[in-house]
Design a protein that fits this description.
The chain is an alpha+beta fold. It is 42% helix and 19% strand. The strands form 2 sheets. It has a 6-stranded antiparallel beta sheet with strand order 3-2-1-6-5-4, sandwiched between helices. Strands 8-7-11-10-9 form a 5-stranded antiparallel beta sheet, with helices on both faces. The radius of gyration is 26 Å and the shape is elongated. The termini are far apart.
Length: 383
């Protein structure tokens, strides 16, 4: 269970926390949130070290299902591999388990700013503490006995941990109060960073939408939040879901109907970059947009275009598609209609690998690299 310790009057914290350090850190974070390519990085650790004399710390990165990806300290990034030290303790790490469980329960996102602090002594029972594998691990690798972990991001996929040696004792209430304040600075800066980053992502996606020629669109993250939606898409969704959908589109909460829309009836085939869903009289084309980071975290977004059934232009595939062979033209037609490689194979009564080979030939002959580019290429041949 997450605990934020109350402030204890009197006493001096072991970490430096002068007013000047606090001010400098705030100013540095303000600049960092605008200029950084990746927010949680050695640069952030250096800020903490310089302004608060915190030098025993590490950032751990997970995917949204809590699989370990990498960690970073002031020396740099260490990606997960067979001999990574954290593999020794991953399955036995009680702090990680509690942090992740709480994050799932509370639907933690990028935009949480309420301090989430986890002391190792609050997670591990006192009578088991000294013998716990986690404690032995941090003693071996960080020469420490106590830790405090801060949780950030979707499902707490970023965890920043601070360590303290045995001879200095556990973290005091006053130190925990300072950590709460530091958390607030970091969380607010991270929130601003993600908003700025996502604004750029939305702009990039809109360029793709403009190129597609579609009129109705919405943009979502992978956690059922609508990030952008135009009036045409809103009207389509109201026709399907009723007028109450407008409140969901304008709010910041989870949209309960998005899991159905984003789910696919079958596993997405390798090489397929778009899924088609027919709902009532509307066709939804669902594209994915991944933002990858050096720590191996991948943030996934979706852009979805909506058109009335039959509104997509009919394409005459018997002409203007040179240099494709007759079979390649048929494969291109089925791809244009939104079929997966597996569905195309069943339709043409050939193997999946044969379809994949045809697609490779189509892409090579047309000078393209994706299904989306194939759509544009086919429609350009009509003109």
């Amino acid at each position: 269970m997450m605990k934020i310790q109350p402030v204890r009057k009197g006493g001096t914290p072991s970490m430096k926390y002068e007013k000047q350090g606090q001010t400098n850190f705030f100013l540095e974070m303000e600049h960092h949130q605008i200029t950084a390519r990746e927010f949680f990085s050695p640069t952030l650790l250096n800020f903490l070290n310089k302004n608060f004399d915190l030098n025993q710390m590490i950032i751990l990165y997970f995917d949204t299902q809590n699989h370990f990806l990498s960690w970073v300290n002031q020396e740099g990034l260490l990606l997960d591999e067979e001999k990574h030290p954290y593999r020794q303790i991953f399955s036995l790490d009680p702090v990680r388990k509690v942090v992740y469980t709480d994050a799932l329960r509370d639907h933690l996102t990028y935009f949480n700013t309420i301090p989430r602090l986890y002391k190792s002594t609050d997670v591990i029972p006192p009578n088991q503490y000294d013998s716990d594998p986690y404690v032995r691990f941090i003693q071996t690798y960080f020469q420490a006995k106590y830790s405090v972990t801060m949780a950030f991001g979707i499902n707490a996929y970023i965890q920043m941990t601070f360590f303290k040696e045995a001879e200095k004792g556990d973290f005091t209430d006053e130190e925990m109060q300072h950590f709460s304040e530091i958390y607030a600075y970091i969380a607010n800066s991270y929130k601003n960073f993600k908003k700025y980053e996502q604004a750029k992502i939305i702009s990039e996606i809109k360029n793709h939408i403009i190129d597609s020629g579609e009129k109705a669109y919405l943009i979502t993250d992978d956690f059922m939040h609508v990030m952008d939606c135009n009036k045409e898409a809103e009207l389509c969704l109201q026709d399907i879901l009723g007028p109450s959908v407008r409140n969901q589109l304008e709010g910041e909460g989870v949209c309960g109907w998005l899991p159905f829309l984003l789910s696919s009836g079958e596993k997405e085939e390798e090489g397929d970059k778009v899924r088609i869903r027919m709902i009532q009289n509307y066709q939804f084309r669902i594209y994915t947009y991944d933002r990858s980071y050096s720590n191996r975290i991948i943030d996934r977004y979706h852009w979805i275009t909506i058109s009335s059934k039959g509104s997509r232009k009919h394409v005459e595939f018997t002409r203007n598609l040179e240099p494709l062979t007759a079979t390649e033209q048929r494969v291109a037609e089925l791809m244009y209609q939104g079929l997966t490689y597996k569905a195309i194979a069943m339709r043409l009564v050939v193997s999946y690998h044969t379809v994949k080979k045809h697609v490779e030939n189509i892409y090579a002959k047309c000078g393209i690299q994706s299904r989306y580019q194939l759509y544009k290429w086919i429609e350009s041949r009509e003109n």
